[in-house]
Amino acid sequence: MSSQPYILILYYSRQGATRAMAERLAAGVESMRGIEARLRTVPPVSPTCEAVDPEIPAEGAIYADLDDLRHCAGLALGSPTRFGNMAAPLKYFIDTTSELWLGGALVDRPATAFTSTSSLHGGQETTLISMLLPLLHHGMVYAGLPYSEVELMETQAGGTPYGSSHLAGKRSDRPLDDHERRLAFAQGKRLARLALALERCGEDT
């Protein structure tokens, strides 16, 4: 197993739009030397208590466990929007992290969030802000997208200072456009740079 620090890119995706964003963030992370991206997802939740999901997904990233989160150098949290909030499967996983919170495992580590919606004004910003709240409770250092990323002023679809976003379209089949791709890449790169800097600060204290 690699001894390099890693950014955990933890996401939930039903139609593939949020997964595509996660992959662009991962490319941004891995454009920085000395750190790697670890893509993980979460299983769906069901109102039927007998429903059991396979231990390994049929495709895409494998399911996250608490150790993925415990040992990460930084976290990118991604979800489609559900009524202006993160999707229930991701919230369910976050709600299981009390032992990490009790031990302060994630204090001072950088974090960010990303989302996708079917409509242009489908709650992207409220979703990102709601995803920020548990990260602050964990003592993480939130990193959005600064306006030095010129695409924030030019985008006609996704992109916010709270984190990257994507307009997936009514059928969730609209691909990431160039602005959305660049912003997701920049977000991953920034998170990796901050994680490396904060790690060095920790070594100096």
UniProtKB/TrEMBL annotation:
EC number: 1.6.5.2
GO cellular component term, pick one: membrane
Domain of life: Bacteria
UniProt key word Oxidoreductase: yes
Keyword annotations of the record: Flavoprotein, FMN, Oxidoreductase
Entry cofactors: FMN
Domain Flavodoxin-like, chain residue ranges per copy: 7-191
Gene3D superfamilies assigned to the protein according to its UniProt record, in alphabetical order: 3.40.50.360
InterPro entries per record: Flavodoxin/NO_synth (IPR008254), Flavodoxin_CS (IPR001226), Flavoprotein-like_sf (IPR029039), Flavoprotein_WrbA-like (IPR010089), FMN_Rdtase-like_dom (IPR005025)
A Gene Ontology molecular function term of the record: electron transfer activity
Enzyme class at the top of the EC tree: oxidoreductase
Pfam families: FMN_red (PF03358)
Keyword Oxidoreductase in record: yes
Family recorded in the similarity comment: Belongs to the WrbA family.
Protein name listed in UniProt: NAD(P)H:quinone oxidoreductase
Originating organism: Halomonas eurihalina
Gene giving rise to this polypeptide: wrbA
